[in-house]
Amino acid sequence: MTESRSGDTPTPYLIFDGDCGFCSRTIELLGKWVTHPAVVASWQSLDLDRFGVTPERANHEILWVDTDGTVSGGSVAFGRYFAAVGGRFRPLALLLLHQPTRWVAARLYELVARNRHRMPGGTASCSLPR
Q: Within the chain, how many helices (H) and strands (E) appear?
């Protein structure tokens, strides 16, 4: 859930684990509800070095790469994504990004991430490395 900085990108990116059925299904559902010009791509299909991100990190959490190169992970990545979308999703962004609910969102994200292989659409390939 930390932030780091890579080079500037002209378009923001939402990066997910394409090998995880739960993650892929979540992104698919998100695409039905949200319209945003971000590039949505699996980390397996990208040159992660471009963003200064390791495969280990990309496998561990969803990532948001903003146009200024800031890389956010986990619940903060979702919060920054929803903030960029704006409109009716702005309240959700505020809940994910600001106290006192930010720490709750982070813990909930971690709980789901650790158990994504047990979630609907999840398979054994969704399990995070120990």
A: 5, 5
Q: What is the extent of the structural domain holding 112?
A: 3-119
**For the chain, how many structural domains are there in total?**
1
- The pLDDT assigned to 128 comes to 55
pLDDT computed for residue 122 by the predictor? 53
Hey, what are 27's tokens?
């992104």
Bridge partners of 3, per DSSP, are 72
Query: What residue ranges of the chain have pLDDT lower than 70?
Result: 1-9, 120-130
Widest Cα–Cα separation across the chain: 38
- Flag whether 44 is in a domain: yes
| Cis upstream peptide for 91 (omega within 30°) | no
Assess contact for 123 and 21: CB atoms under 8 A.
Answer: yes
